[in-house]
Amino acid sequence: MFFVYIIESALDNSFYIGQTKDLIKRVKYHNEGLSKYTSKKIPWKLVYSEEFNTRTEAIKRERFLKNQKNRTFYKRLIQNWSGSSVG
């Protein structure tokens, strides 16, 4: 399984969207400062995720979400998510 996720920075409430095979490990990676892009906005909290059967599907969804560039859209998506918080 593959995941598309949105994490939110507790520092400035910004969002980061990504995709991964191991969701828990990836959120930990962000919070350990191992990603250059997200290292300056630690700590991060998982606020949204979706599961896909293939990486191709996950990448397609990730690109769609990143292209929205709309905070209201992301907040609505997060608000309607029924997942549990990780990280």
Q: Unreliable runs, pLDDT <50, ≥5 residues?
A: none
- Beginning-to-end CA distance, first to last residue: 19 Å
Helix content: 25-40%
Q: How many structural domains are formed by the residues?
A: 1
Query: Architecture, CATH level 2?
Result: 3-Layer(aba) Sandwich
Measured by DSSP, the beta-strand proportion falls in 25-35%
Q: Could you give the order of strands across the largest sheet? A: 2-1-3
The class by helix and strand makeup works out as alpha+beta
Overall form:
globular
Brief write-up:
The chain has helices at residues 23-31, 55-68, 71-79; strands spanning 2-9, 15-20, 44-52. With 87 residues, the chain is α+β, with helices and mostly antiparallel strands.
Please specify the SSE layout and strand pairing.
Blueprint: E1 2-9, E2 15-20, H1 23-31, E3 44-52, H2 55-68, H3 71-79
Antiparallel strand pairs: 1-2, 1-3
Q: Which keywords apply here?
A:
3-stranded antiparallel beta sheet, alpha+beta, 3 strands, 87 residues, GIY-YIG endonuclease
What does it look like?
The structure is a single chain. The protein has 87 residues and is of the alpha+beta class. The protein has one domain: GIY-YIG endonuclease. It is built from 3 helices and 3 strands, in the order E-E-H-E-H-H. It has a 3-stranded antiparallel beta sheet, sandwiched between helices. A hairpin with a 5-residue loop joins strand 1 and strand 2. It starts with a strand and ends in an 8-residue tail after the last helix. 23% of the residues are buried.
